[in-house]
Write a structure and sequence with these properties.
By secondary structure, this protein is mainly beta. 4% of the residues lie in helices and 47% in strands. It contains three helices and 30 strands. Strands 4-3-5-6-7-8-9 form a seven-stranded mixed β-sheet, with no helix packed on it. About 2% of the residues have low confidence.
Amino acid sequence: MPTFIDMSALTKRTTLTGNEEFQVSATEKVTAQQIADLATRGLSIITVTNFNTRTWTGGKSASEMVEGEIQAFISAANTTGAPSNSAYRGFVQKVSGNSTSYVLRYYAWSADVSVTGIYIGFSMYVGNCSWKSLTFDQSRKTVIEVGDFTTINELWPASVKQTPGNVVSFYTGTDVYFQPEASETKYVGFVILDTDFANTKTATVIAYGQNTGKQYIGKLEYEAQSIDWYPLTYASRLTNAVKVTAFNEAPLSSLLGNWKTGDVVPFTTDSVIASADNQFPESGIFNGFISMGSNEGDYFQIFAFKTGSPKAYIGACIGSTTQWTALGDSSEGSGPIPGYKTLVSSWSSAVTTGSTGIINFREEIPQASRILVVAKIRSSPTGSATIRANVPLTLASINDSGQGILFDLSLQYLATGTNIGSIRLICTSLITGANGVQGMNTIVQSNNLANAGDIIQLSLYYK
């Protein structure tokens, strides 16, 4: 006969081994560890000391991780097998395999404000970890609008090859089928083709919900058109999104000052007009997450997604300044011909002969770059001004000495009577920087112009 004891007469055990047993039926029993295994796993934070040999401290070892499990990681500068000599933050996922033979995938970004970009690393076997930079070509369409997560294969851009590691960013409207959570209304994120895509035809979908700031990972059967979603659940530090009012040291430190290096925090914002004081990348509503950097309290890495837009940004905040890098496709920076990027969005000069000017580039470019000129002759810079003439698309001709011609235009319409009016914009010299060209000095040559008060207005693109 079993003996029944009043529970109030027992003392509480302070620690559990996991081997404690409980009867669950007339013939069966379970252990405390089996019950614990049913609980949702949180993200452990590990410190990687060697990517090639899969060596780290904290959390679970690679052999102990189950297939699909994710851990957050940090690594110091000069860690063996890292993408570069920088310190890194990110996630590691056990993609496939068992305790003795398995594949790991890393998502990494630098803790150094001067190093931009995201890296995907694949460790197929002990002794090697290969990295691929996750880049976004501004000259081609790499953003898709998803209305059904199972039919992404029908939306995949023709300009992006279907090869392992290639990425397409996406956004959704308010109505989307097979979404991770019914209570969400909109998502933004990325689709990444898996390592063995050629054989499995599978991809990983990373989605960020607008309402709650939650993140989800989806396993997409690319051609079979089905998807299974797995919410990213975090330890107690990461359960609630914070409300950000400005992306600089003081407000971020007040929100996150007690957190630790490597912590990842979801965030949301109200509708804000961007300014130097708040350091928003542009005006609007944003959500995303913030990673705590190496200098606690004053250094933060930020992933920000703009609500109602496919735009996304990476930000690096230190002190009162945040440096932003735009991700994904955007009209800003794309040239009129595929492959060309914006070098100068708008510049103007008088048409009178002898007029000099300086054209400053938005970034430093190699001197061997090809520069495309898009120009017109206008009566004034105002939007209602008369357009006298369009300059045909032309490639600037600059010699090795940094001198040449941006464009040469001759039209009877620019003159009076039967005369021919001519305008030539000349590059007299290049403005050089540490590694390339930052701008150019110009002078105008013109003749027989009927309207001496006209202006040249141009944009420059390069590749």
